[in-house]
UniProtKB/TrEMBL annotation:
Domain of life: Bacteria
Coiled-coil region list: none
Species of origin: Ohtaekwangia kribbensis
Cited SUPFAM superfamilies: Fibronectin type III
Residues in Fibronectin type-III domain copies: 311-407, 504-600
Protein name: Fibronectin type III domain-containing protein
Length: 691
């Protein structure tokens, strides 16, 4: 091979290798990408570390293809196709392409060349060791650069393949694995999931612009938005807008990842024009890692113009006592005849845009006054050339004295949600020099407020986080406005934000539960939370599953209640619950239980009622009770004015009976009493019936 030619190529392209710094992370892995074309699929891969690159070139890459989808259905078992172990072509296969293709020469020299440029006489020295490491990194970086520029050479180097055994109705997973033994160096594999249906036409480069000056054009275009498609670009030029030719032999690429990461993400290229006053047209075309040339961008055009030789310089800019800005500038008198005059331009920011505010200033004039000032003003003075490009001075800052603060913000509102997020909003101030706001918080209305921001806040909606566990229900917010001179307005009145109540009240506490006569006496200590709205007593009789509300009080109670609706022989359990104004309830108080002593009067039935059917001429009697030791029921009957006699005796299971021996227009008295297994007899419960 012609080493002298290769040496020159490496010297010219060394810096271009830095474009591949994304491959130089510390973890060893294979990185792969694919491109679907109309009838074939292209795959490219590379490793990310110089040592992994060297070893992988020796051992090769294993490529396996799996058919995963067919006819839009995922196969239950992917079909495996072993493509093989791919290695760089032998050295002899590089001789012919290396003599005609500089990218082939770069890759061949990186793979098989004896040495790169290494300057050290003592090969055993530390510098020699460093140079050897640098040599490997240079081989690695430049070979990947060259492979990115020529896909055919990437395939010859064993870093890519073209798969033509593909079908429109299938989708494949290509797995690329370095065959370096894991014990020698662990290298993660890569995969590409792609099918012919993933084909998309290449996009046009966007946001192409051209700026023209004296025999020079600066062409720029957006890089970030298309970096997943293109790794390099060609610029084409035309003098008639129809016939274009490339202005560089090699494609242009982003030279630094740090530049590509900038928000602008643009590539700039300076082109020398043959002459001024001639219209030149430019367009840009992208080149992929698979050597595909994308469609041209939209054309941009312009004319080179001779730049005015003299530049104005602002020498003084100040505001006088009358509030007028007095500005003076210098400009070579020899240039007076080359200009139409001057233009004074103004912007409220240094970056612009600058708007002409005074035009057609005579070419001989060097001072001017201006009164329509903003709180912050940046002025430039432009010499308007008769022919060619005009020249503009550097900007100068002018700020009139301002000690008047803005008005306090209006319409302040504050809301706190259930998660403790407070949203504070207000109406934006209308002053032209308003800069921003400061927000303050306090938990006590008249206390000293605490600022929530270290810097000036420029929005009109602010969020704060408050603790929902702190017992205070209100948080107060205050806002002030600041202008560009940091004059601060008065504080707004504190605006209260009410926290949603998510903390239940504390539980009340029973202090006594005792039997007094035929009643259960309950005493307790109220819940003492600020927002208590009610206290409720619940009761549950023995063997009952559900609690029954028996009494509800307001926020403040006497702390005492007597339950008279009780039956002897039954155990009752009581609990007490406090509720707040938000509807939250406390945990039930510790239950208290008491057994009501049975008395003779307690043996009576709980309910005794009658149904009269005059059409069928009968009276039905029915009852219920809660006694658990009933032996029988004794029923008595009497007509009005006659003594009652025992009428019927029914078993404990019977809870109804029918009387058909009746006389119309007669009043009857029916009585019932309970007889227990122990022989206890209850009082008679009477019922009057008019038939």
């Amino acid at each position: 091979m012609r080493k002298d030619r290769l040496y020159i190529v490496f010297t010219l392209l060394f810096l271009c290798g830095t474009a591949l710094t994304s491959y130089s992370q510390r973890t060893n892995y294979v990185k792969a990408l694919g491109r679907a074309q109309k009838k074939q699929i292209l795959i490219r891969w590379a490793v990310n570390q110089p040592r992994a690159w060297k070893l992988s070139n020796q051992h090769g890459f294993e490529v396996v293809r799996y058919t995963v989808i067919r006819d839009s259905v995922i196969l239950s078992k992917p079909e495996r196709k072993y493509i093989g172990i791919i290695k760089p072509a032998e050295q002899s296969q590089w001789i012919v392409p290396a003599n005609s293709n500089e990218y082939a020469a770069i890759i061949a020299q990186a793979l098989y060349g004896e040495s790169f440029e290494v300057s050290s006489t003592d090969k055993e020295s530390i510098l020699s060791s460093i140079n050897k490491a640098q040599e490997l990194e240079q081989r690695f970086a430049l070979s990947l650069y060259a492979a990115d520029q020529n896909f055919a050479m990437a395939q010859l180097a064993g870093w890519g393949l073209t798969d033509t055994d593909v079908k429109e109705n299938e989708k494949y997973l290509y797995r690329i694995k370095s065959k370096v033994p894991a014990g020698q160096l662990a290298i993660d594999s890569a995969a590409v999931f792609i099918g012919l249906k993933d084909y998309k036409p290449l996009p046009e480069p966007t946001e192409v612009a051209a700026q023209f000056s004296d025999k020079t054009a600066v062409i720029s275009w957006d890089y970030n938005s298309l970096k997943d498609y293109y790794n390099a670009y060609y610029i084409e030029r035309s003098s008639d807008g129809k016939n274009f030719y490339r202005i560089t032999e090699r494609p242009i690429m982003q030279m630094s990842e740090s530049d590509a990461a900038k928000p602008t993400g643009r590539i700039h290229y300076v082109d020398a024009l043959g002459m001024n006053d001639v219209t030149y047209y430019y367009r840009v075309r992208g080149v992929t890692s698979f050597s595909e040339l994308g469609p041209p961008s939209a054309k941009v055009s312009g004319v080179g113009q001779k730049i005015l030789e003299y530049v104005p310089h602002i020498v003084k800019a100040a505001v006088n006592e009358a509030g007028e800005m007095e500005l003076s500038w210098s400009f070579e008198r020899a240039g007076n005849g080359l200009i139409r005059g001057f233009t004074l331009s103004l912007s409220q920011t240094e970056a612009g845009p600058y708007i002409p505010v005074v035009q057609n200033i005579p070419a001989t004039q060097r001072t001017i006054r201006y009164t329509k000032l903003f709180p912050t003003n940046y002025f430039t003075i432009t010499a308007d050339a008769v022919n060619g490009a005009s020249r503009t001075s550097m900007s100068v800052l002018v700020q009139p004295v301002d000690s008047i603060p803005p008005q306090a913000p209006q319409g302040v509102k504050a809301i706190i949600d259930s998660l403790g997020v407070a949203t504070i909003s207000w109406t934006p101030n209308t002053e032209k020099d308003i800069y921003g706001y400061k927000i303050f918080r306090t938990y006590v209305k008249d206390a000293e407020p605490t600022p929530l921001t270290d810097t000036v806040y420029t929005g009109t909606t602010f969020t704060d986080s408050v603790s929902m566990r702190i017992t205070n229900r209100k948080v107060y917010y205050i806002v002030t406005a600041l202008d560009q001179r940091y004059n601060q307005s008065a504080f707004t009145a504190p605006v209260a934000a009410i926290k949603p109540d998510i903390v239940p009240p504390t539980s009340p506490l029973f202090t006594k539960c005792e039997l007094t006569g035929n009643e259960v006496l309950l005493r307790w200590s109220d819940s003492h939370d600020d927002d208590i709205a009610s206290h409720t007593i619940y009761r549950k009789a023995q063997e009952e599953k559900d609690w029954k509300r028996i009494k509800q009080f307001g926020p403040h109670t006497t702390g005492e209640y007597k339950d008279s609706d009780v039956t002897g022989g039954i155990v009752y359990t009581y609990t007490l619950v406090a509720g707040d104004s938000s509807g939250l309830e406390s945990k039930p108080s510790t239950p208290v239980s008491i057994k009501v002593i049975r008395r003779p009067g307690d043996l009576t039935v709980n309910a005794f009622d009658v149904y009269i059917d005059r059409q069928n001429r009968y009276i039905e009697l029915f009852w219920r009770d809660t006694q658990d030791n009933v032996e029988e029921y004794q029923l008595y009957k009497a007509e009005k004015g006659s003594p009652a006699t025992l009428w019927r005796v029914l078993k404990r299971e019977e809870k109804r009976t029918v009387d058909e021996k009746l006389t119309v227009n007669t009043e009857y008295s029916y009585g019932i009493r309970v007889v227990t297994r122990k022989g206890e007899v209850s009082k008679i419960k009477w019922l009057e019936v008019k038939y």
